[in-house]
Amino acid sequence: MHIDILTIFPEMFHGVFSQSIIKRSREKDLVTIRMIDIRDFATNKHKRVDDYQYGGGAGMVMMIEPISACIEHLQKEKTYDDIIFMTPDGELFDQQAANRHSLQNNIMILCGHYKGIDERIREHYITKEISVGDYVLSGGEVAAMAFTDAVVRLIPGVLNDETSALSDSFQDGMLSAPVYTRPSEFRGMRVPDVLLSGNDKEIENWRLQKAIERTHERRPGLMDKE
User: Fold this and answer.
1) Cα angle value 40/45/48 (rounded, 5°)
2) Pairing outcome for strands 116-117 and 128-131
């Protein structure tokens, strides 16, 4: 998989993408990720990428020319399955969407900033708009990091145990069951006996029951979707 992230703050990604699962996936050449600085495509003297919005109002708007030039430059190199804009008013991102995007080959992600981007970019270039929640961030960078992490971890070979992702919360429409590790007893708090029994069938049934109970208690709406 190849991911290009268009941003005016490329340095924000370096720490996150040089650690943990994303770092290992890049080292294994399972994914390539580039941070593209939109300012490099600005033609004005000060590399300015924002301007006042027409009609007045608070907040600056990212200009159409540098974003358009950046997208078109990258499109000359490859064909993208999706050009994604991270925005609060986009489609709410969930595990099923992560699964779908993990099957793609080339993805471009545009990170907005300030009040937003010129609407003509959304109308003529963007193929999918994605939100990571009903709240507003300072920019699309943090949302792009979350999207990338959720998608990359699903690529075969990224996780040491590929079955781990299959048991994540939301994969089957439910939250995950509780998990425990050693020691089996700590300050009087014991691990459930069934998990120590070695009976795979009973353990599987226990986990399913606990997953159902936890989903009903914490996110009942998930069950309603089924």
Assistant:
1) 60
2) unpaired
Of the chain, the percentage scoring pLDDT greater than 90 comes to 87
Kindly state the helix (H) or strand (E) to which residue 24 belongs, with its residue range: helix 20-27
pLDDT at 166: 53
Long-range Cβ contacts of 125-128 (<8 Å, 24+ apart): 125/67, 125/68, 125/71, 125/83, 126/83, 126/84, 126/85, 127/80, 127/82, 127/83, 127/84, 128/82, 128/83, 128/84, 128/85, 128/90, 128/91
DSSP state of 43: -
Q: Of the residues 120, 152, 184, which one is the last residue of a structural domain?
A: 152
Confirm whether 158 is domain-assigned. no
Same domain, 20 and 87: yes
Classify the phi-psi angles of 105: left when phi > 0, otherwise alpha if psi is within -120 to 50, otherwise beta: alpha
The C-alpha atoms of residue 226 and residue 214 are separated, in whole angstroms, by 16
Q: What is the DSSP letter of 117?
A: E
End-to-end CA, the chain? 31
Q: What is the pTM of this model?
A: 0.87
Q: Which CATH number fits the domain that encloses residue 182?
A: 1.10.1270.20
Which residues have C-beta within 8 Å of that of residue 204, sequence separation ≥ 6? none
163 pLDDT band, cuts 50/70/90, is very low
Residue 85 near residue 107, CB atoms below 8 Å: no
Cα distance between residue 128 and residue 109, in whole Å: 10
Of 149, 143, 127, 150, nearest in space to 7 by CA: 143
